[in-house]
């Protein structure tokens, strides 16, 4: 059973709404329609983890796909691989999770090669006829093909943690550390995600009883790295 904590998510659509949507679909006897979700937002916000959690909630097995799983250098083979994956998933009632979906479903207006368009066309054609749960995740929703966007019933944005959830996340990843004296510093951390705090936890995994002060100092350093990287990526 998954120990994923949905309380550490910050989404623009309530988590319970999404869970109810999946639960209702899972209980339908005649699943003659597709259940499509697109999770987008900055890295580390729990998109893929929540997709797997929902798959478990549905009672079905799941497959997590990346574009490398079906991309082939041979003419026509990528399209065949895409068709095979959808057929297998439907036959086995498997939840399909397409991680980093923007690596395939880019806006076709910006395609440089005809095969890029062909791959997107094939994927969308298979998705149109798919009868099952399909969840795509992306950090770059602005790059998404608009026709692909229309295939998803719900587009859910995953955001950085809110103040109260930041403190909860620190206590979750460092259950034996008392952060009461550092609440203000924790609340001042900007654009931090549960994934960032998980990285922080990994940094201290071989240190016995780390000091709360040291953890917060490292959190501030990690956030500076993140801020600098973000500024470079937008050309500052």
CATH class of the largest domain: Alpha Beta
Radius of gyration: 20 Å
Helix amount: 40-55%
Alpha plus pi helix count: 9
Order of helices and strands: HEHEHEHEHEHHHH
| CATH superfamily (homologous) name of the largest domain | P-loop containing nucleotide triphosphate hydrolases
Strand arrangement in the largest pleated sheet: 2-3-4-1-5
Give the number of DSSP strands. Answer: 5
Q: How many structural domains can be distinguished in the coordinates?
A: 2
- Provide the β-strand percentage band: 5-15%
Topology:
Blueprint: H1 15-27, E1 35-41, H2 47-58, E2 62-65, H3 77-91, E3 95-98, H4 114-129, E4 133-138, H5 146-149, E5 154-158, H6 163-173, H7 183-187, H8 194-203, H9 212-233
Parallel strand pairs: 1-4, 1-5, 2-3, 3-4
Helix pairs in contact: 3-4, 6-8
């Amino acid at each position: 059973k998954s120990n994923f904590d949905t309380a550490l998510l910050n989404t623009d659509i309530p988590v319970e709404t999404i869970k109810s949507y999946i639960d209702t679909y899972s209980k339908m006897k005649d699943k003659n329609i597709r259940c499509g979700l697109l999770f987008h937002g900055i890295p580390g916000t729990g998109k893929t983890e929540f997709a797997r959690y929902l798959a478990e909630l549905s009672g079905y097995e799941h497959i997590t796909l990346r574009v490398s799983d079906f991309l082939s250098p041979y003419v026509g083979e990528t399209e065949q691989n895409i068709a095979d994956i959808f057929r297998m998933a439907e036959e086995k009632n498997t939840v399909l999770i397409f991680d980093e979906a923007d690596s395939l479903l880019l806006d076709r207006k910006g395609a440089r090669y005809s095969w890029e368009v062909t791959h997107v066309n094939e994927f969308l054609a298979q998705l149109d006829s798919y009868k099952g749960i399909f969840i795509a995740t992306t950090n770059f929703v602005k790059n998404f093909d608009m026709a692909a966007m229309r295939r998803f019933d719900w587009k859910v944005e995953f955001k950085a943690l809110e103040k109260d959830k930041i403190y909860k996340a620190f206590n979750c990843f460092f259950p034996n550390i008392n952060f009461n004296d550092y609440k203000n510093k924790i609340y001042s951390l900007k654009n931090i995600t549960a994934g960032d705090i998980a990285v922080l936890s990994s940094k201290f995994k071989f240190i016995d009883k780390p000091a709360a002060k040291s953890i917060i100092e490292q959190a501030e350093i990690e956030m500076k790295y993140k801020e600098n990287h973000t500024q470079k990526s937008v050309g500052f």
